[in-house]
Amino acid sequence: MNDTSSLKRILGFRPLLAVAVGLVVSQGVMLVMLQGAGLAGYGFLVPLGIGYVLALSYAFSFSELALMFPRAGTLSTYTEVAIGHFPAILAVFAGYVVVAMFALSAELVLIDLVLAELFPGLLPPMVSALAIIAFFTAMNIRGVDVFAKLQSALAFIMVLALLAVSLMAIFAAGVPRMPSPNLLAESNPMGWGVLALTALAIWGFVGAEFVCPLVEETKEPERNTPRSMIAGITIILVVYALFCVGALAHIPREALAGSPLPHLTYFKAVLGEEGLILLAIAAFTATCSTVNTSLAAVPRMIYGMAKNGQTFEVLGALHPTYKTPWAAILFVAIATAVPMLFLSSDPDAILVLLTGASVSWLIAYIIAHIDVIVLRMRMPHAARPFRTPFYPLPQLFGIIGMGVGIFYAAPSPELEGKILSSAGVVLLIGCLISAVWVRFVMGKGLFAPEPAEVVLGD
């Protein structure tokens, strides 16, 4: 029986909502959203809406799975029961460990670039990024209650800053504006083009499922887990739709699509030099929120895997005082910091890293959808506190949509080779490690499902 009883159940709806919003509203996503607006104009709202529906599909799947198997291991736990240990380990490695290595590293390099642009010479390169990792690593080891208070404050400040600049851009008088657009002429993601832009828009909605690894520390999880994900995704849709509309009212599309820091251009165009202070607040809180959420959720996935024998036992250690998975938290912090140091001299790699991370993440979502379908067939009478509405349509739509997102992941042809090679090599390594671990360390078949009774400790 898994010994997870030491985790404290103290998280309610608001901190979970802050988690669902906090990972997604990041600097990297701001760049991707503004790039999409630059490419398609107001027509980017169409793929943004499709991305929202795809996000609801994964929220439904994760809600159903998380409440069937309320364990910190999340996707690894669901998948080992559905289709075996090999895809279970690969799903967490691809969808979360790789994303922490790629996306968090890119996010921290980005905050270093923004702060260097706003406050030249204030700090040596990478000092601010390393300080952020060190601080939130310590706070997450200190306890989930500390994490929750920090996350709620960060998410509130971050969303408020983005809404403030967006509403000022849309409604404020006296601010120079672009000519009123002809929406039919400006909106041009038609035909197959909408699929490529939808792949871009999906990146704006990934990560709300990070509430699921906290299920053992959640009060009333049957109610709060699905509600927080759905509400978080909806808030994200509203925030980014307004963000893009405000940007298009003031900045030429070519400038949005071509600028390395379009959010800096946006804030300066709307608020002048004073807007750079608000940008610094928004950028800093977005990065801190992303790092804080990742250091709370991903280590708990690894902790659950360690308890299931899917990784090294030491990663399942709890802090003797704070009852947090300290070893897994340190592992994720180090996995984030190491690639970031190599990237400090190559800021152009940020887009490649973010897109490579999205490819890995979408693979994990496809596995989650498959888990739901397989478990509905294999365990039709199992208790499901949350059942996917209109099953299996959300799962089928999600699998097809995520597959299209992977196919159209590269934002430009010249980056396609770099993205596919970086993501492909890392995923190949993940496959090899997962196969060797399952076959020779665990002594199990690669695709042999684990009985649900074993996972739940019954």
Description:
This protein is mainly alpha-helical. It contains 18 helices and no strands. Helix content is 70%, strand content 0%. It is globular.
Give a summary of the structure in a few sentences:
The chain has 458 residues and is mostly helical.
Largest sheet: none
* Count of the domains: 1
Query: CATH homologous superfamily, by name?
Result: Amino acid/polyamine transporter I
Percent helix among the residues? over 70%
Q: How much is the average pLDDT?
A: 81
CATH architecture: Up-down Bundle
Q: What is the CATH fold-level name?
A: Amino acid/polyamine transporter I
Please write the CATH class name.
Mainly Alpha
Structural class: mainly alpha
Contiguous uncertain segments of 5+ residues: 1-5, 180-187
Topology:
Elements: H1 13-22, H2 27-40, H3 45-68, H4 75-82, H5 85-118, H6 127-142, H7 144-171, H8 183-186, H9 193-202, H10 221-248, H11 253-258, H12 262-271, H13 275-307, H14 326-343, H15 349-378, H16 393-407, H17 413-441, H18 452-456
Protein traits:
disordered N terminus, mainly alpha, Amino acid/polyamine transporter I, 458 residues
